[in-house]
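Why does this matter for the project? Reviewers at the last site visit asked to see concrete outputs rather than summary tables. In response, this paragraph embeds two records directly. Each consists of the residue sequence and, immediately after it, the corresponding structure tokens. Nothing has been edited or filtered.
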Amino acid sequence: MVVLVTEKLDPATSSTCQIIELPVSRRPDSATSEIEGFEVLAPIARGGMGGVYLGSDRRSGEKVALKLLDPRYARSEDIVARLFAEERISAAVHHDNLLEVRGCGYTTANIPYLVLEYLDGENLGELAERGRMEIDAIIGICTQIGHGLEALHAAGIVHCDVKPDNIFVLYEDGYGGWPRVKVIDYGVSQFVSEIVPNEATIAGTPACMAPEQWLGAPCTKSDVYGFGCMMFELLTGDSVFAGSLPEMMLAHTRNHPPRASWLRSDCPTELERLILRMLAKDPGLRPTMTEVVDQLAELLGHRLEIAKTG
């Protein structure tokens, strides 16, 4: 669930906020599915804003993914703008660990859509739900995620919604022999230069939102916090904080996070310390994404070396 808040929140009060949980979209009808230059073949995934479909480029025959907005939201200026902003963000940065958005437009039925590179695999959330992941696999996969987020930050972009469901695991080798991954879904991402502190729309997934993000002041360190929440969840199977929306808001802004080793005894001390630094309430106390990547790579290299000699 992604929340959008239309008024400034005060963690000290019980301020209400507008929660938008868009219903699951349906396969487009014949009129909606008419996209110039492409053929819609089959549904791939469904989400709140719309659906993703397997498509084919009529000229080259290449497979693509087509992200169509649900028709009921086609007249919402804010939602359409968020969809098309994904193409603008993708055009600003290219990296092997970031999803490529290749174009956007309207169908013959005036439904907004994006053309995405086709990815063969599954999202990290689905993979993690099948069972506890190995420590080395988590570190290898997260190192790649960090590289992708590092590239976004270097381009002046905050993802704002780092979570397992927004990481795609491909059926091909990546860093250290672990599956290659892509950071996906730029639906609530923002350019740092366009963020007006304390006036920005509060958007993200409550379980992974940094304290400053709840107050409408996201920054690149907000992604570091969300990334720390995600790593904690991959390690333990639990969210850092849970509960109702107000309870999570208060916990993220006030409460000390639990230690991963409390729920997983084989969690490396170095990894636990890194996650706790990433979950600092003060963004200035968190490491940069580059520092996170460097520590993850160093930790994985050390563990692999021990495995070889042991």
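We now turn to the second protein, recorded in exactly the same manner.
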Amino acid sequence: MNPRVEHVKPNLNYTITLTFNNGEVKVFDVKPYLDKGIFRELKEISLFNSVKPFLGSVQWQNGQDFCPDSLYLESKCPKK
């Protein structure tokens, strides 16, 4: 089982910075999903900023979420 999300911070460029329960900090890009289904709503920045940790993953105010394994496997180490 992959690490789970403990903390999430929304960023201005439609990415989220994730802190996992193993101490890793990674960035997940939400932009590729913004033209798909329920994720279209996240183009509204106030809704995008409503992201919270939820059961080892993340969830937005209107119920959008991602699989915790996808978040870990598809996120990248932050650029320095």
